Amino acid sequence: MIGHTGSGKSTLIQHLNGLLHATAGDILYDGESIYAEGYSLRKLRSQVGLVFQYPEHQLFEATVLDDVMFGPKNLGLSVEEQKERAITALGQVGIEESLFDASPFELSGGQKRRVAIAGVLAMQPKVLILDEPTAGLDPQGKKEILGEIAKLQKEQQITVVFVTHCMEDVAEYADLILVMNHGKVAFYDTPARVFAHKEELKDLGLDVPQVTLVMQELHEIGLPVSADVITLKQAKDQILRVFAANASSRDEEVACDA
Amino acid sequence: MKNPMIQVKNLIYDYLISKNEDEEPERHRAIDDVTLTVETGDFIAILGHNGSGKSTFAKQINVLLKPTSGTLIVGGMDTADEKNLLPIRQTAGMVFQNPDNQIIATIVEEDVGFGPENIGVPTDEIWKRVEKSLSSVGMLHYRKHSPNRLSGGQKQRVAIAGVMAMKPDCIVLDEPTAMLDPAGRKDVIATVRELNEKENVTVILITHYMDEVVFADKVFVMDAGRIALQGTPREVFSQVEKLKEIGLDVPQVTELAHELKEEGLPLPDGILTPEEFREEIEKLWQSSAEMSPTSILKEADLKSRLSIRSI
Q1: Helix/strand/coil percentages in chain A, nearest 5
Q2: A152 and A216, same domain (yes or no)
Q3: What is the pLDDT of residue B295?
Q4: Domain range spanning residue A100?
């Protein structure tokens, strides 16, 4: 989910687990209205996990393990189960066992962020919603966290919704992009299709990935590359292909001349 | 010859971490023997991953921290000397990451006037400075607004105006765009570049975003408290492998150009912007289209260097 500051992204996602109640309209989860009479919001929240911006500000227990066990504890699970889930969740975000007994406040920024995400994963949600999960992290930390989330999505079949300002991350990880603008959905489509609207996105205060931009421009000036490239690998393959084809077609011409 | 804005010589800074009261505190070296010079009027960028020492270094310039050993001279003043504290803070202003932590007043113009008022600038002069600083960051129109209603990028520009109102020779910005959206990032960087170009303010920009540093006069890359790489952006970004080793990214087009070059396309090192990339590819394309049979050798060479896979 992308959109400039104030476009409504954070407000929208807070509806998805019932934190905010819609003024009008309906939300269906698994085919059922979450506003239906008697619908258990508690159950919804155990299945739709929401990770806020800067979630590390919400760490509060004395140890990393206790902090991650807090969610399962609230689900009423036994201490054994709480522990088991916490250990699994911490493993999923790549926190080593040696840190389990550390105070969350001794950890680095990236580690804290991961512990906070583990706290939500320990609820074993079916849907994971993250509001700018990589804000403030360095490139390495960012790559690691997104890599771990992508792995969860693939291996555990968790549905992931993440809010970001980084178009390169969208191109790399997302199946679909939702673009918010002034509280409305401006686009909801595959990254390649959405990034084709370069000018409209610019008007919304958004970018396209650098590689998309240059490939669109190369396409416009007549290079036989496609304009819907969104990742570095695609761009590289296309450019190499174009130059290789050019070189071999001229080989043939020369052979005919001879 | 003008004096350098900042001179750093063999700077070392150790944090003391005490786990127990009775134990000897542990030493953690955050800055490890850094020597560098920043010339007046330069736009300097400092890159590095979290914990590389770049923010600690920024705090040294503003005397929020003092060297454990070595010297740091800002505008000709030694930061170790107590009496230089206030003059140095007026010389080198600082802008932090979180815009919400830096704004204190309820009206934009009062926030910007807070600094000069604190150092006893006469009221007339304060208003002049407020007006000038707000217009230099393109926020004059918002002078009567409440800062709470501004976007993150606008708040950061107000914070920068607040620093400008102190008439500093140098501004240190510690990840000023980390919490902003793309439009806000662009506005802040454009503002900083303009202050550097038009007002000749020395800029030290600390950031994770590589695309923000391509316009810098000089880039320093910090790793484990040391300067790991330094040079013009082009020189630094030519070292794609080394930057990746340190855990940093290069701009996407720089990486693309680097990978294409590895595959044999004759591209120059250190392409920094999408414009440069497009121009270079276009040139290459035209020259390959116009190539005459006599240059076939060169062409064959290009072809063999292009590891052509069966497509």
Answers
A1: 50, 10, 35
A2: no
A3: 43
A4: 9-190
Residue A35 distance to chain B (closest CA, Å): 32
Per residue in A191-229, pLDDT (tens digit) is 999 999 999 999 998 889 999 999 999 999 889 999 889
Is there a single domain that holds both residue A75 and residue A159? yes
- Write out chain B residues lying below 8 Å of A242, CB-based: 285
Q: Is B134 left (phi over 0), alpha (psi -120 to 50) or beta?
A: alpha
Over 60: is that where the pLDDT of A67 sits? yes
Q: What ipTM was estimated for this complex?
A: 0.80
Give chain A's mean pLDDT: 90
Query: Which CATH number is B4-248's, of 3.40.50.300, 3.90.79.10, 3.30.70.20, 3.40.50.2300?
Result: 3.40.50.300
CA distance B95 to chain A (A): 16
Which helix (H) or strand (E) element contains residue A178?
strand A177-181
Number of CB atoms found within 10 A of residue A30's CB = 10
Helices (H), ranges, A17-98? 41-47, 64-74, 79-92
Residue of A106, A112, A140 to mutate when probing chain B, most B C-beta within 10 A: A140
Q: Which residues of chain B are under the pLDDT cut of 70?
A: 1-2, 19-21, 290-311
In whole angstroms, what is the distance from residue A239 CA to residue A223 CA?
Answer: 9
Q: Which residue of A has its CA nearest to B305?
A: A244
Question: A13, A138, A161, A237: which is closest to B47 by C-alpha?
Answer: A138
